[in-house]
Amino acid sequence: MADAARAAILPFFRQSNIETVNKLSKGFDPVTVADRNAEKAMRDVLALHRPDDGIFGEEFGRVEGSSGRTWVLDPIDGTRGFISGTPTWGVLIALSTQDGPVMGVIDQPYIGERFVGSADIAVATGPAGSMSLKTRPTLNLDEAILFTTFPEVGTADERSGFEAVAQRVRLTRYGMDCYAYALLAAGQVDLVIEAGLNAYDIHAPIAVIHAAGGIVTDWQGGPAHEGGRVLAAANASLHAAALALLRDA
């Protein structure tokens, strides 16, 4: 599916005349022909190889299956970045049960990097070869690197929660979309805090980060696979410290 999505997306990347539609009447939430073509390509693969499984995709909704398994698809996570020409978007693929994701893929077609995580594997492949995924051992917030996608994060209350953590860390960076979660799993950063996510935004990152030794919950410490407010951390110590600040705020 990741290979099929790559082939469907790359001809449109950094094309100035790409067809784009805004999903919102207020604000800007774009979808492109590349998003739709990639999800169709992945659904075609599933129809051939896993016809009994369910599908939940951002662009074409939900198809119920009979196997108890569902493929959760975000064909381009970070479409705003995609139409801006930045290589921080990615293809998200997760295999999930009713309890959440059990396998995930974060694929960056333009760079050629792929991050895969499950109970049996935690590996990244790319131009430099392959490497095992393992989160960083950073224990203190004042040594941590924090990522989020949007500076405003969410509501005013959610922004105050994020700021409570951001004021304590060594470095805060913005605008990375799903690539931030991949970098956390690869041991490059320590925390990702976001709000307003959909389920298809987070299923694959949860599986990849868990496989690499990290933790992903909501802002109350509960399951995050339904979306909403998400805290991803490299280890239990950082997770506990960030979670306490989010709760207090």
Automatic annotation (TrEMBL):
Gene Ontology molecular function: histidinol-phosphatase activity; metal ion binding
Keywords: Amino-acid biosynthesis, Histidine biosynthesis, Hydrolase, Magnesium, Metal-binding
Binding site for Mg(2+): 58, 74, 76-77, 201
InterPro entries from the UniProt entry: His_9_proposed, Inositol_monoP_metal-BS, Inositol_monoP_superfamily, Inositol_monophosphatase-like
Keyword Cell membrane appears in the UniProt entry: no
Keyword Magnesium tagged: yes
Pathway(s) annotated for this protein in UniProt: Amino-acid biosynthesis; L-histidine biosynthesis; L-histidine from 5-phospho-alpha-D-ribose 1-diphosphate: step 8/9
A Pfam family reported for this protein in Swiss-Prot or TrEMBL: Inositol_P
Cofactor: Mg(2+)
SUPFAM superfamilies per UniProt: Carbohydrate phosphatase
EC supergroup of this enzyme: hydrolase
Catalytic reactions of this protein: L-histidinol phosphate + H2O = L-histidinol + phosphate
PROSITE patterns in the record: IMP_1
BP GO terms, sorted: L-histidine biosynthetic process
Signal peptide feature range: none
Assigned EC number: 3.1.3.15
Similarity section: Belongs to the inositol monophosphatase superfamily.
PANTHER family: 3'(2'),5'-BISPHOSPHATE NUCLEOTIDASE (PTHR43200:SF6), PHOSPHATASE (PTHR43200)
NCBIfam families: his_9_HisN (TIGR02067)
Protein name listed in UniProt: Histidinol-phosphatase
Organism of origin: Ruegeria profundi
Lineage: Bacteria, Pseudomonadati, Pseudomonadota, Alphaproteobacteria, Rhodobacterales
